[in-house]
Amino acid sequence: ILSVGQRKVMQRIVDNALAVSKESVKTVTYESLNNIASCINGVSALLLTLLPGKANILEGLHGWELRPTLRGPRLPRWMQNGVSSFNHFIHELSVDSDTSSLDYSSGEEESDGPPPASPSSQCSRLSWASASAKSEGHWSDWITFILWWLILPLRILLWVPQFFLRLFFKRSSRTPASPRRNQHRPRFSKTNSSKYHDVPNRATDRRRGVVEDLHLAIEICIEAIFDFFHRATHLLLSPSEAFGILLSWFSPSSHRRKEKHDHVSDDETVQTATLGDADPSLAERPTRLYNTMNTDTRTCQDVITELGYPYEAIRVVTSDGYVLLLERIPRRDARKAVYLQHGILDSSMGWVSNGVVGSPAFAAYDQGYDVFLGNFRGLVSRDHVNKNISSKEYWRYSINEHGTEDIPAMIEKIHEIKTSELKLSQPNTDEEINHEEPYKLCAVCHSLGGAAILMYVITRKIKEKPHRLSRLILLSPAGFHEDSNLGFTLVEYIFLFVSPVLSRLVPAFYIPTRFFRMLLNKLARDFHNYPALGGLVQTLMSYVVGGDSSNWVGVLGLPHYNMNDMPAVSFRVAQHLAQIKHTGKFRMFDYGSRRANVEVYGSPEPLDLGESYRFIDVPVDLVAGKKDKVIRPSMVRKHYKVMREGGVDVSFNEFEYAHLDFTFSHREELLAYVMSRLLLVEPTSVEQRQTSQKGMKLKKKKKEGTVV
């Protein structure tokens, strides 16, 4: 029987052995995983050197050309600072797990060198980085490291009894530990608090990728396993405590405590406090799953409000029951408004994703506009008035519904809001003067949004209904697609050939499960951390879309592709685009039979929108991208040519942009051009409105006099 002093000595020896073994295993696993990731990055760089045409595709993407660097082995963290940084990292994770930022191009993280490879705290990273430089002066630490590994047989001998003591560990782990938790709670400093809670001023993306998640999972597993070993050896060296725990198993009071503990843990909350708050008392908040998974699940509302702008969400219901989200950066007294409409596989996030400086929505608001951000139907969440609508029924729509249902519902809602607000601010002003609105509404649309807004204006004029728009600014608009690469042509023929069968099996194209959407969100971060791998994915995606050099990898990391929701493409929208490309005409959806077309359009052929451009009665500004391979400049010029032939007041301009550069890149010249076109539309002044009102009254009096 060992004395108390001998047990303490043995416990100290075992604790030191476990500590050394734990940090050594962490080091080996960390280095192994990091070397695998570096190898993948290196192979990606090698493949990139063999792919043709990568120079234009990877323009502006630095770090993909990997160059080998030699460095010494990293030492275990316990040899550098004497204590594991795991607890510090857990605290840091709990503080900033859900605080990623809008600007993904931070200069602090997007360096040409290798990415931060460990998910540990910043202090730990610095100590690891400096370990190789100081390795020559730490021979004593190396000797200590080798000596501790000599006790490996002892650890193996202790494995068998420790395995049978797992139940003791489970039991002892349920004992109250609040005093101890309070003892080891990390200290909060005022600097750290402001850093992690002042979201608008931080420009660092703190999401973890798949590789970093593997680092974290391995470190947590190692920590749990060695903690189990530590508790088990403690019980082996303290038989009396182990015997007391064994007796407590059969105690009735322990079962009651267990039931009470389980009841409390079912609804677990986390107590939090932030320095600088008006009320420093602890507040309870429920834990949320996406915080643990560390994915970027922000919405457009989060981005706008984080940057200090006002926000308003408007629920719009279309005539066929689809529920749309119309978002707004409100200026309620403004007589000039702008409506921004996104393209395919996009959302309103595209108009605010570049922050205050590079986003069209914020630029328009700063110029005094009331900004409305439209969202088409087609989110994975499938919001509809009929909550029991089937997937097949929900996705049964084409571009027709975007132009004749979605946009009319949103613009009518804008009209309703603006007229009511302006009546309140100026009650003596009539709603309409000479059939003019009391405000001026311009539309800025990208890609598919441009085709839909043209369809909207033409169909409203044919129906003799007001479209309420004063100017159209179309950025690389869809509509004509016959000039495209061989890949798009092959997809077109294959799609049209299999569409009768495929339409019954695949109602829409999207990532179906939350897990795979989360995986995409995290892989986008890995593509950022490993530039050669990201460059390879960027090049391959560019090949798929005909060599377009847009930042496809960066777009995948935007919050609207998150685990909770994402924009999708219905089968009929894709089929409609294939029909437009196949016929070479910008026309409405062909339902496949003369009878079906007659029921919808009143004619056996769909309405040719290109031949109906004469109905467009507002100025149109067309913008093309010289590097755009999705909608080539020749197709935008075709819009311009047909509009000119139809007598439309139209202008045409080109920029050195790819397809996604119109919304997802910082392009000051584009913003300046769009703002200059918007400023051409001046709202009606107060004097002009008063003069018009007097003229209308005089006309009424003259008519009354002639009647008498």
UniProtKB/TrEMBL annotation:
Sorted UniProt keywords: Membrane, Transmembrane, Transmembrane helix
Pfam families in UniProt: Abhydro_lipase
Domain of life, source organism: Eukaryota
Residues in the signal sequence: none
UniProt entry tagged with the keyword Membrane: yes
Region Disordered: start-end pairs: 100-123, 175-200
Membrane spanning stretches: 142-165
Domain Partial AB-hydrolase lipase: 301-355
InterPro entries linked to this entry: AB_hydrolase_fold (IPR029058), AB_hydrolase_lipase (IPR006693)
UniProt protein name: Partial AB-hydrolase lipase domain-containing protein
